[in-house]
């Protein structure tokens, strides 16, 4: 009797249009990375073979989305596409009101300015760069209350984005509920390696915040990916649909910021979603000052239409299973090769453990930045640093913040690359890992004041 073997899978789409990419020589890449100051963000797109810098705005839209683009109503006020978008947000996410923005960080700016006052503390399940900065610019201090397992790349905890309820309640008791404007919940947590939060934990967080009358603000950038992990890993949810799980996650929160450039499969756009009428009125007034009228908020009508369609496609099970599955495929391949990565594999990228790959470099020598540069030099694959450079400096001392996780992110755009591309990436990382001892550290030669990982320049030590 024959044994069942694991069957191959294929992407759940057909390729209808192609974009040629340039193959470069090592000499060309050496020149390019030096001119970019060893910062992969400063490379030109045409110098990149496989672009895994980010999944933000880099995904491929569907034929339905492109058709929707032709139906753009570019009226300054009351665009019909806004109302299609509003209907989609209410149907799939359940929030009452939306304020469109040009992208997610604009929504972060608005909610931070409206809810945070000087001296406030904002607890959350690990920081995200732009979110934390907007909270600080509004006068607040972010406090990480994620479970300890999130800071351990070897931990196989299935929900490393869970909040430590003891840490959260201790902070509330120490600072006072009146100094905590909201709890910040991300689905999934990027800086931990694309890790999900469980619904059981979120329900407990909700119960605790209701006790102290503190709202929850949801960074829902990758909520469908989080829902997939809940369906796959959390007891009691195997038979629930992705839309049902997404709706339940959102129902446990009071407001949300969305960078639609991730889950929702568009190249630009975002929104702030709220349930509270008074907060909605203030946000709608504020968006007119900083973004545009409250019925477009920095987005063209055609982009709002593509977003409304993208939301419905993002919760399709075949799509989200293949999207996360491609990431897991790359991650498992690297694990088989012996490459140290964050476990379990997250939803939107594979995170290389730069501390273990480059043990001869201290964090002062910027190992993740060095590793990202080395991978590009080897193959033209562009990745990005998620370590001491991204963590920035302590605003009081001026010293580097030293996160426990020093990572390089191989971020997979949605519906863009095939398994063959993943194989090329894995082979490149393996080659770099085998010669890791030859990689030298970097030092800053230029550093902007905010979000330094985007524009800093480095040179080899």
Provide structural commentary.
Helix 1 packs antiparallel against helix 14, helix 4 packs parallel to helix 5 and helix 12 (317-336) runs parallel beside helix 16. The protein is 39% helix and 12% strand. A five-stranded mixed beta sheet has the order 2-8-7-6-5, with helices on both faces. It has a three-stranded antiparallel beta sheet with strand order 9-12-11. The chain has a two-stranded parallel sheet with strand order 1-10. By secondary structure, the chain is α/β, with parallel strands linked by helices. It folds into two domains: 26-55 and 317-460, Aspartate Aminotransferase, domain 1, CATH 3.90.1150.10; 63-314, Aspartate Aminotransferase, domain 2, CATH 3.40.640. Helix 7 links the parallel strand 5 (183-186) and strand 6.
